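Model: You mentioned two targets. I'll fold them one after the other.
Researcher: Yes, keep them separate.
Model: Target one:
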Amino acid sequence: MNHRIMTTAMLLAAPLLLTIFAFIIPMIEVVRWSLFDGQGFTTEHLETALTDELFVLVLWQTLVLSAQVAALCVVIGYPVAYYLSVLSGPLQRLCVLLITFPLWVSVLVRTYAWIVVLGREGLVNLLLLGSGVIDEPLKLIFTRGAVLVASIQVLLPLAILIIYGAMSQINRTLMQAARVLGAPPSSAFRVVFLPLSMNGVISSAILIFILSLGFYVTPALVGGPRDIMISNVIAAQINQTLDWGLGAALGIVLLGAGLGVAGLTYLILGQFAAKANDGGVRS
């Protein structure tokens, strides 16, 4: 028993230390910067972060854009994940490899690639001009749409893999039973498979939403002046104005807003997914 306890403690030591030194201690410092200044305790930074119209607008834009990215990643990724789940053998492994391939490339490199594709003389405008669809180049770069497309491209593989993992655990004999009982394929999918896969859909949406909240490189490179996200504002407060207290307060507000939206989503949809999974997932 003692040997097992020691082995478990040794295995947990590294991730526990990493969590303490890379997350808990930095978060304590961020909270301290937001609540204390040179003269002691203050709530001025938090009040500014919560009441300033510019900061509130940017936070709202960040939440909306992150929700859009999460929703579109789920909508696009669900059919791909379903196709992966019905494959088997080498073809399935090859498709998974191709989906994970973009994750091997830096986000910075992938974002720069979108500048080449969406630029005034980029691939999209050249194709549209060459085919006669447009007479002059469209403004595709430095727009909200460019930020949305680039963000989806970065996070879509993660959404696909999460949903695919949930689908692979579904007991496929339930679909066969529904077909035997006379349900057409579309009804069997809608009534049986879709509810059972909602756990993966919800998990994917929440994770993509949380990751989108902290995007910095993508909006900075392909977004316009009105498309900045709260992470860009925090970086400006830290690096340019050197107002670490306000930057920390904005980070706390972002963390609270993100956790609030994610928690509310889980509370609303999580119970439905848990009930739908009863007896339908392989043990």
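Model: Target two:
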Amino acid sequence: MVTAMDCRNWDEDVYRDSILLERESQCRTVFRTAFAPNPNPNHNSYPDLIVAGISDGTIASYSISSCLDLSSAGNSLVPVAESSWLVQGHDGPAYDVKFYGNDEDSLLLSCGDDGRIRGWKWKELLGSKEPVQGGTSEPILDLVNPQQKGPWGALSPIPENNCMAVNTQTGSIFAAAGDSCAYCWDVEKNEIKMVLKGHSDYLHCIVARNSHNQVITGSEDGTARIWDCRTGKCIQIIDLHKDKRSRELFPYVSCIALDASESWLACGSGRSLSVWNLPACECVSRITTTAAIQDAIFHDNQVLAVGAEPLLSRFDLNGDIISQIPCAPQSLFSISLHPSGVTAVAGYGALVDIVSQFGSHLCTFQC
């Protein structure tokens, strides 16, 4: 039996807006997640809060325990999680979120398509009385990439920030920008310490090698470069694809990761993941994957990687597959690891999967 529909109060504008809103929600993407600092000194304790940088420019935190309760309710649909705190961080997508510090006094940092790095006091966010309305919270740190001067004094657009790295010992934040430069910012003075120039195309990723006072950048030009932070000079170029055919297939460096000893480097490039021994400057293994690699991280002498397929893959340093875990997002952009071994993967559809240290799914939620 077909239910009759009353069209006398039909509102075309409301219907159109609802369709657009639904499509926008389906296309939202979580580009990066970060586990919040744990006030408990016991590193084996499970994480509770996770922060997400989302394609609509918002930065939001979610309670994992609350998401576990939603998942256990038995609903077949992926639950939409309610944020414990949310702010409109950027005009355009938020590409990265990180914590500057490891305790409640740390800063929550974000960067995005508008060329800004913004920072909030994490302790103040935790104590916010109006979690969602906290979108009006003003950052205590607001850094903007410089514009380059062109002919007749015309200014270029502000280059976007695609990724960040931090060094709390030197008070520095590093940004991988869209003008092929990496910017080193002084946290205390809110000014640029140095500009790392040498890449011929925009930067996708950056990691800090703090034990050597270095940073490593990955670029669209197909190389990773190691920089001395004392001089601002490039001291080593890692060419992932020296042969012409390989460079044509995988011309860019999409992600890089360092292990805990900062002696091993993983580089994602198209459907290829390579592992390098940095002291020897030697590629020890090269893995061919079925989809483009978009993020990677080290864990216990293994490499975890995600990309343009709904899988969390784990490899050993020789390139052999240890495990592959199906995930909810059809394309994954972020993988985050908690000291307890709990992993978060996130991507298309604003979906986040929380995976236990044993490889089982704890919960899935939509931001």
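Researcher: Noted. Anything on target two?
Model: Confidence is low (pLDDT under 50) at residues 131-135.
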